[in-house]
Amino acid sequence: QVQLVESGGGLVQPGGSLRLSCAASGTISRFNVMGWYRQAPGKGREKVADIAYGGSTNYADSVKGRFTISRDNAKKTVSLQMNSLKPEDTAVYYCTLTFYGEEYWGKGTLVTVSS
């Protein structure tokens, strides 16, 4: 049974930084992609960034240059460093893990950017 647990959400002022982390457990293929999605109030779910086992990354245009995704394969963790946060970054952030065509989701962590 694959489980994902996020941590690190909270309240931050505009321009501030926050780091999200996600720990995966269970039997996981090394050929996997880990990532982050977010869902803002009243909006659909949006992919923020993902990172393959080998380290290649993809980012949404809205976060390029501000967010950095990284992973530790030995620890089965993925992190999202978020800098220069804007009010529009307010959302529930979900960690995802994909392998063999299956996609797993964490329960999400709330990030609120407000003064």
Structural account:
- The strands form two sheets. Strands 2, 4, 5, 6, 9, 10 and 11 form a seven-stranded mixed sheet that branches. A four-stranded antiparallel sheet has the order 1-3-8-7, with no helix packed on it.
- Helix content is 0%, strand content 56%.
- It is mostly beta strands and 115 residues long.
- The mean pLDDT is 96.
- It is globular and about 40 Å long.
Helical content band? under 10%
Please trace the helix and strand order, writing H or E for each element: EEEEEEEEEEE
Largest sheet composition:
7 strands, mixed
Radius of gyration: 13 Å
On the 0 to 100 scale, the average pLDDT is 96
Q: How far do the termini sit from each other?
A: 40 Å
With helices defined by DSSP (H or I, 4 residues minimum), what is the helix count?
A: 0
Give the helices and strands, then pairings.
Layout: E1 3-7, E2 10-12, E3 18-25, E4 33-39, E5 45-52, E6 57-59, E7 67-72, E8 77-82, E9 91-99, E10 102-105, E11 109-113
Parallel strand pairs: 2-11
Antiparallel strand pairs: 1-3, 3-8, 4-5, 4-9, 5-6, 7-8, 9-10, 9-11
Which properties best describe this structure?
seven-stranded mixed β-sheet, 0% helix, mainly beta
Give a short overview.
This protein has no helices and 11 strands. The protein is mostly beta strands. A hairpin with a 4-residue loop joins β5 (45-52) and β6 (57-59).
